[in-house]
Prior knowledge:
The protein is mainly α and 415 residues long. The chain folds into 3 domains: 2-63, no CATH class; 71-175, Orthogonal Bundle (DNA polymerase, domain 1), CATH 1.10.150; 185-373, hpI Integrase, Chain A, CATH 1.10.443.10. Helix content is 46%, strand content 9%. It contains 15 helices and 6 strands. The protein has helices at 41-59, 67-71, 74-87, 92-109, 119-130, 136-155, 185-206, 214-237, 241-245, 278-287, 307-316, 333-344, 349-356, 361-367, 376-381; strands spanning 2-9, 15-27, 30-35, 252-253, 258-261, 272-275. Helix 4 packs across helix 6. The longest helix has 24 residues, at 214-237. The chain is elongated, with a radius of gyration of 33 Å. 20% of the residues are buried.
Amino acid sequence: MKVxxxxxxxxxxxxxxxxxxxxxxxxxxxxFHESTGAKDRRAAELIASERMRTEELRRAGIVDPFASATxxxxxxxxxxxETTIRGRGRVERYVKDRRQCVDAYVAHRKARKLKxxxxxxxxxFLTSIRATGVAARTVNRxxxxxxxxxxxxxxxxxxxxxxxxxxxxxxxxxxxxxxxxALTPEEAEALLHAARTRPLKEATEARIxxxxxxxxxxxxxxxxxxxxxxxxxxxxxxLRAGEIRRLRWCDIDERRRVVHVPAASSKSRRDQSxxxxxxxxxQLGAAKPRTAKPTDPxxxxxxxxxxxxFHRDREAAGIEREDETxxxxxxxxxxxxxxxxxxxxxxxxxxxxALARHASIETTMARYTDLALLDVQGTVERLPLPGAAPKxxxxxxxxxxxRSWDRRGERRTGT
Length: 415
């Protein structure tokens, strides 16, 4: 082992020694040449000897392989965690959310090293968040971030165990604060009509004396048509707002009648396809400019309706934001409407899950299917219960013969 000060050539041409000592040593035939950071020779020798001893023990399998990770600063671990998530292709909003959640735990616990991470501390942290009155889903955001960080520590050999193993999420179903409902076909038609006519109508009413120029009338008419098209796409495909916003003309396959959702746009980060109804395909074809390029966005920049625009269109259509049971309607509710309409048509749950592009069928059935649109009572009435009057076969019943019950479940009196 050799400890020395490195020499360098000064500006005046003279040779000078550096302030800190460097160490040169060999372990198992491997050369190590590094700065000790010490200005005192004796201190540098002790540092170099300890490093050499640690390396020899590590090679012999005696030293804890997680020792270096334990001593590393927590900020460095968090930076590496953030880099790993970003490297997986996740959207920036997701990456920042995960980092923010873990940072909140670090600040709450005043943690500095990995040894400060433990299950009791994490449980107390989640309890403190819950005490602020937020929904269970918000608390579970922090839970998911901590669990993801703990698993990452184990997989990257930074910890021999997951410090958050045993941490349990809250039951979101028992504490849903924002329950969406689906639109009826009549409400959907009214929404599209309001979106199509509201821009020009409001401009005409505001400029009752000055009037609206032909150029302005054309622009407002186009704006209304674009907004109505956005809502029609959401209702007919179940695409999310971000997916529609990034939709390009080359993503629409007219021959196969499908719309492609690139991995960069989809929530799951996978290439996906959604079938298009013929009526929606015709609407898209009519809206496509003759000069449109394949990579041009379907929805022109600046014309995509934001949340405020949607609710103004909803009000113009006479649709209440919240019903008597507290369920609400917003833009994402159009996706709920699409999936609920599938259920009303008797679509198999597995098919509905595929069209919704959900990883879990529970998400499709529990969160995105509005039972209010389903004929639950009629389904029960059709059960072959013991004691029920036998139903006439469809093949033998005259066309003019009335049914015993109408769609509302009221008794009919046939003549």
